[in-house]
């Protein structure tokens, strides 16, 4: 089968031919129908050799949707031919947080060598994908696979982040979304679907701001030093009750810190290398809570797919073949993808 692999640190990913994997005990083989490209893949491919955490070659892709092709011995609960979305942040499945569905927080996964598909384990940018357990499959129940693929991360991660701030996003409140890319354009829709907050989107590209407006942002502004002043003007001097930073660079975190309201939340989702100083004298208003959410829980994914089925969120996608995936990554790197790039193997 064809797969898109990162093979050598510092080199571009390559389309290669590898054997179709066989499902072992408890595993499920998925025929991939759609797989999203995430900016995190670019971050991974930017890490230096001495700190590279995954075995190479690595088949990329942590947003996968497909049909069940074969079940390993003892795997039950899904049927061959069923259309499913893959839940990516695999946990041990046995501890308390996993029992709650919050496998993204499993404290044992790393120690047990359990790694997400495309982020350590072979990923979804291939014709077939091995999933370690039926537990990590959510039925599409009629949802379009191309729509659904980005929801497994670009939808799930903002949903999880926003869910933490819901008590503050009351009528009259404001949420700021920094970076209207794959995650950000879904964040805008999720905020509109889940909260009465006014949504202000910030980006550095005019096409991304157009997309933000098209998917429901009340205001879409160029991000920069003056952005916090605009946010304060639009909020009667108060600032935003929630700021979601989907870039996470030093410059955007400075915007987040200057735009957040007293008592508000800053969610640092982007892994752009910046950090936020928490503590008196660190520059944040009093009583601000800051967090760095990671992906989402299994129930979060069920919820996001449900919102999409009801038409409350939809992925804006540009599709590519497996052979075109390296080019799609180049375009993502250049900021030329609006919404999410999705590969159809
Ligand atoms: P993307 O490339 O699709 O979108 C990024 C957007 O940010 C683009 O629209 C870009 O124009 C905009 N941008 C860049 N610099 C900016 C600036 N200075 N100010 C405002 N906007 C700016 O990326 P994505 O796939 O949506 O991922 C977003 C970030 O989230 C990445 O850092 C990714 O690694 C990270 N991520 C984190 C998690 C998590 O669990 N925490 C999960 C998935 C992705
Ligand atoms: Zn991702």
TrEMBL record:
Task: Kindly list the residue ranges recorded as spanning the membrane.
Answer: none
Annotated coiled-coil segments of the chain: none
User: What EC number(s) is this enzyme filed under?
Assistant: 1.1.1.1
Q: Enumerate the spans annotated as Enoyl reductase (ER) domain.
A: 10-343
Which top-rank group of organisms is this from?
Answer: Bacteria
Q: What are its cofactors?
A: Zn(2+)
Keyword annotations for this protein, in alphabetical order, are: Metal-binding, Oxidoreductase, Zinc
Task: Name the reaction it catalyses.
Answer: a secondary alcohol + NAD(+) = a ketone + NADH + H(+); a primary alcohol + NAD(+) = an aldehyde + NADH + H(+)
User: PROSITE patterns, alphabetically?
Assistant: ADH_ZINC (PS00059)
- InterPro entries (alphabetical): ADH-like_C, ADH-like_N, ADH_Zn_CS, ER, GroES-like_sf, NAD(P)-bd_dom_sf
Q: Which family does it belong to?
A: Belongs to the zinc-containing alcohol dehydrogenase family.
Q: Give the protein's recorded name.
A: alcohol dehydrogenase
The organism is Streptomyces olindensis
Read off the lineage from the record. Answer: Bacteria, Bacillati, Actinomycetota, Actinomycetes, Kitasatosporales
